[in-house]
């Protein structure tokens, strides 16, 4: 199977030693390509469940086959990973080649050499610098890099880099992570509380057994879930085996990484999409060699070639960020369970607010449920209150109610920190002409352009489109008629600066926290109390631990409830509970204030009462009768084409060919909420089935009936979690 190709191709070979998993050079048209020798179709079929099996390959005339050029002398793809590739392909209906390409990110024919990486020496402001040196520091702010990579990125000679090192502007990044069991300078792990110890023992036992078992580890924020699952990781290291920990926002998880490093005396192997190629290759080789290690990564780390996997952990298992929405569309959490099952090792799903899917698996007896009941060391859960915005609205043109503003003032006066959460980047989500009512939209998407005042641009959050902020209305040409509507975090920042004079603000969004280095600096500033108030998007929800933070204000708690998403309420509760969980994590108690126009909504009530399980029981009761997930299954078909007519025609053809039968139903076609995306016109259909009906064979048959024109495309999303 040459990579970047869709499916398995046949070749002949004279090499009797060639086995599945080997990498080979093969002819493809006039080119030479790298491929991976795949298992025979019967072998592939035998290791898949019957309803996922691939259709049999077309027979090829052996005389037309071309020979393999040669075997590449490098370790092959382990069988467990080939098996996983087949499974993911069969489950998601993505071509095997596309999945294999993910498993080969980081593959290289020759093992890479170790190189020294350099990072910014201190987050402080360096003295006045030459332009060239400034460029170097800017480049290094992204992530630690080799001298060569830094010189390339900054566009300077390597002499400039050496000078920066001499001047102590750059320092060597902690050496390449490796497993050590001889570290004697490692601080002893904390003594667990009695209830933590009970859970830790259960997790260690599960690791000891080395057989498949799925465990839900639930506990409120700050209850010590991380502490406890690190015990399981330690047990796995004691067995000299490999562990995989998936985190939803690993690129910024500097706190997690330093905590790990402090506890174990060596760094984990970090894996995510913004790592450089050299780093990727080293991790790939390390994992392939079977040496004991801990990989902490984004969902794509599932496709690393573990040869001695002993444990899989999915932290924040409820996070939608585990769903990959492009290319191979798969759910990292679900595929993690599968990966563990194939490797016959335990998998631990960790959350303060588990997904309904996982809770249903617990109920059905498929997953074991372990619960940490309280916050560690008697820290209280924050006091959560809903601020009814109908009763105490903010002043005209403002977004923070008087109650929230005075709570901020009081918190800061006590020398504590506050955080304002609004899940919206930029200045305002909509810009409107007061004269003619024109709304500034993306020319390529059904979406408003979002003003980013700091960058002086209007930006589409769905494609790359951006333009300068216009000075007159593009429609009626009126001047000074364009007004921002609604708040983004930049606008809230402006309001805070106006209302709370002298406050030191730190903004945390994907625009400001662009790298692990930026995150590291932000965390340091917060810990040193060089910051009074944090304003952030959903990035602030992720496992941060800010000891002095006691107040969390949610600017628009209703934001996520809009739109027809079946999980809107569940997600709102999960996200806001997680954000609120940042408050009062140490001795001083925390407060969470939710600005809402819907104080009676079940999601708000659940947040205030902090009775998550009661809320989830209601959610289950709402979804069960209609066979919505997890009580039935969904598969989405997203049709797109260059013209609306072409999209409609294909959607209609799909609808006409739709499968019929007991327990299944096709909803749509309907225009997608993003009717136009990157210039393509989109329609959606949704297949909903009872549990126990295999959707993949239905979909295969259904899709086979269609002939697509060159501008038309159908994307299949099994178990969709977003419906844009
Ligand atoms: P969670 O993952 O549930 O949010 P953590 O494991 O991050 O919880 O623990 C919250 C905080 O409490 C962390 O700072 C952690 O170091 C501390 N902590 C938890 N358990 C203990 C313990 N047994 N002894 C000392 N500190 C602990
Ligand atoms: Zn756009």
Polypeptide structure, described:
The protein has 724 residues and is α/β, with parallel strands linked by helices. It has 5 domains: 23-103, GIY-YIG endonuclease; 118-172, no CATH class; 194-377, P-loop containing nucleotide triphosphate hydrolases (Rossmann fold), CATH 3.40.50; 379-424 and 487-620, P-loop containing nucleotide triphosphate hydrolases (Rossmann fold); 632-718, Alpha-Beta Plaits. A 7-stranded parallel β-sheet has the order 8-9-7-10-11-6-12, with helices on both faces. The protein has a 6-stranded parallel β-sheet with strand order 13-23-22-14-21-20, sandwiched between helices. Helix 15 (516-527) links the parallel strand 20 (505-508) and strand 21. It is globular, with a radius of gyration of 27 Å. Adenosine-5'-diphosphate binds at residues 190-193, 196, 219, 221-227, 376, 545.
């Amino acid at each position: 199977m040459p990579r970047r190709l869709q499916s398995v191709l046949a070749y002949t070979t004279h090499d009797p030693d060639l086995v599945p998993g080997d990498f080979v050079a093969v002819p493809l048209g006039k080119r030479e390509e790298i491929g991976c020798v795949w298992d025979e179709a019967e072998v592939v079929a035998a290791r898949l469940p019957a309803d996922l099996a691939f259709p049999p390959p077309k027979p090829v005339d052996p005389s037309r086959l071309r020979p393999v050029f040669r075997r590449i002398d490098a370790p092959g793809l382990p069988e467990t990973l080939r098996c996983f590739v087949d499974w993911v392909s069969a489950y998601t209906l993505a071509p095997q080649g596309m999945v294999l390409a993910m498993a080969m990110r980081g593959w290289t024919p020759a093992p890479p050499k170790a190189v020294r990486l350099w990072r910014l020496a201190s987050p402080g402001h360096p003295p006045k610098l030459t332009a060239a040196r400034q460029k170097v520091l800017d480049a290094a702010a992204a992530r630690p890099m080799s001298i060569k990579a830094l010189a390339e990125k900054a566009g300077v000679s390597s002499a400039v880099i050496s000078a920066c090192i001499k001047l102590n502007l750059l320092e060597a990044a902690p050496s390449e992570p490796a497993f050590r069991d001889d570290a004697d300078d490692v601080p002893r792990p904390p003594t667990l509380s009695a209830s933590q110890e009970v859970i830790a023992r259960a997790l260690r036992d599960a690791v000891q057994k080395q057989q498949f078992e799925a465990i839900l580890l639930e506990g409120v924020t700050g209850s010590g879930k991380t502490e406890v699952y690190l015990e399981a990781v330690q047990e796995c290291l004691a067995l000299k085996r490999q562990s995989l920990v998936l985190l939803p926002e690993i690129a910024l998880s500097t706190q997690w990484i330093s905590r790990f490093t402090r506890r174990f005396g060596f760094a984990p192997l970090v894996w995510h999409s913004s790592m450089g190629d050299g780093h990727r290759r080293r991790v790939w080789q390390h994992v392939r060699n079977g040496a004991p290690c801990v990989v902490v990564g984004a969902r794509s780390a599932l496709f690393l070639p573990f040869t001695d996997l002993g444990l899989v952990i999915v932290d924040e298992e409820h996070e939608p960020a585990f769903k990959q929405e492009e290319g191979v569309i798969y759910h990292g959490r679900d595929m993690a369970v599968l990966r563990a099952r194939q490797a016959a090792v335990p998998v631990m799903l960790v959350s303060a607010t588990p997904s309904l899917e996982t809770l249903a698996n617990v109920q059905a007896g498929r997953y074991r449920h372990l619960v940490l009941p309280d916050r560690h060391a008697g820290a209280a859960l924050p006091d959560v209150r809903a601020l009814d915005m109908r009763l105490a609205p903010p002043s005209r043109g403002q977004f923070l109610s008087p109650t929230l503003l005075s709570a901020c003032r009081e918190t800061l006066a006590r020398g504590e920190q506050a955080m304002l959460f609004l899940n919206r980047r930029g200045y305002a989500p909509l810009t409107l002409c007061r004269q003619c009512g024109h709304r500034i939209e993306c020319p390529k998407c059904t979406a408003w352009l979002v003003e980013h005042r700091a960058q002086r641009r209007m930006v589409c959050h769905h494609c790359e489109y951006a333009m300068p902020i216009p000075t007159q209305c593009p429609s009626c040409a009126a001047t000074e008629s364009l007004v921002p509507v609604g708040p983004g975090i930049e606008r809230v920042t402006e309001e805070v600066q106006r209302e709370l004079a002298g406050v030191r603000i730190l903004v945390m969004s994907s625009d400001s926290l662009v790298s692990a280095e930026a995150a590291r600096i932000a965390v340091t500033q917060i810990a040193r109390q060089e910051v009074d108030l944090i304003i952030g998007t959903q990035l602030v929800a992720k496992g941060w631990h800010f000891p002095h933070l006691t107040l969390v204000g949610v600017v628009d708690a209703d934001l996520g409830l809009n739109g027809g998403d079946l999980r809107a309420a569940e997600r709102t509760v999960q996200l806001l509970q997680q954000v609120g969980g940042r408050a009062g994590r140490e001795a001083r108690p925390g407060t969470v204030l939710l600005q809402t126009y819907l104080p009676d909504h079940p999601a708000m009530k659940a947040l205030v009462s902090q009775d998550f399980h009661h809320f989830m029981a209601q959610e289950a009761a709402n979804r069960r009768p209609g066979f919505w997930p997890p009580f039935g299954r969904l598969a989405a078909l997203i049709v797109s084409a260059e013209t609306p007519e072409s999209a409609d025609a294909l959607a209609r053809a799909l609808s006409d060919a739709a499968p019929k039968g007991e327990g299944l139903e096709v909803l749509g076609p309907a225009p997608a909420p993003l009717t136009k995306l990157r210039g393509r016109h989109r329609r959606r259909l949704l297949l909903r089935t009872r549990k126990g009906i295999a959707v993949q064979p239905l979909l295969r048959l259904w899709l086979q009936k269609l002939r697509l024109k060159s501008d038309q495309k159908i994307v299949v999303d099994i178990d969709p979690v977003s419906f844009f």
